[in-house]
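User: structure tokens for this one?
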Amino acid sequence: MAIILRFVDTHGFLREHFFQIVHVHDTAAATLKKEICDVLARYNLEIHNMRGQGYDGASNMSGAFNGLQALFLRDCPYAYYVHCFAHRLQLALVTCDEKEISIWFFISNLTTIVNLVTSSSKRNAELQSAQVNEISRSIAVGERETGRGANQMGTLHRAGTTRWSSHFDSICGLIDMYEATIVVLEFIITDGSSTSMRGEAGGSLTVMKSFDFIFILHLMHKIMAITDLLCRALQQKFLDILSAMDLVSTTKALLLTLRNDGFDILLSYVKSFCTRLDVDIPDMSARYKRSSRSSQQKDTITFEHHFHYDIFNTAIDFQLEELNSRFSDETVELLMLSSALDPNDNFKWFDIDKILTLA
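Assistant:
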């Protein structure tokens, strides 16, 4: 267990220093508390002087009743727990991915496609060759703009489990190299070294040429373009609390605007994308049949209703729900009130009412 101390030095400057690494036999909250107390006592640092705790969101750390932060609060009631904003955001995004089955299925297929196409240097070379041809074609027909720094060669990015921004990079890469990726998959189907590889490529190609996959690809691109700005901002070394809260509020507002006004624009773009790739577009007014239900399905919904309400609205609603849940607790209020004590610009944010509420 790594212990980091955050404190104000004798000159009034905020410091954050690595303190010690401690071996623990288990990760139970009581064990971690005992080890931290032993280390601090060894250096004559009194527990009752603690004014804050910072951990990740694991239940043994953040639990409201028996988590490490709760155990310390019983001994020192001013040691409020603060969960890293960037980590909160990532958990919100991951939870959204896990809740909506269509999004989960899309992420799973995206990972398979990227791994298949980038698994060897030969396929990477084929991808770049196909990309060169596609860039030349699209410039010739006026689909791409030219200029300094435009149309750089790239590759598909694998999404990491610890940084959600890598998912955005992965989606951006696939959109930019969509047709080149299809060319590589077709090559694998023809010349793959094994039956399983050719079959996997065939399945991935079928998925990529489906309207559902293309719709969710561009939907996730829209959502992540909004949340990625917040994700990167929250990881900046110097970011004050008020700016962070403003960014969270702006992100929520942008997602709500996308939900209210963005479906028709997105659908129109996806249709033009599919038309260019010769992908079948379902009749939006036709009856949609849910694959998870029996043939006795009673409710009658259209394809447009399915894509609008079951996927588009649901994905954004889950995102907003998680953001509201993780960024609207007492800790956020505490941090907002604490901003009244910010000494910058001759205590520009000084507010006696906030300080009284804080006390």
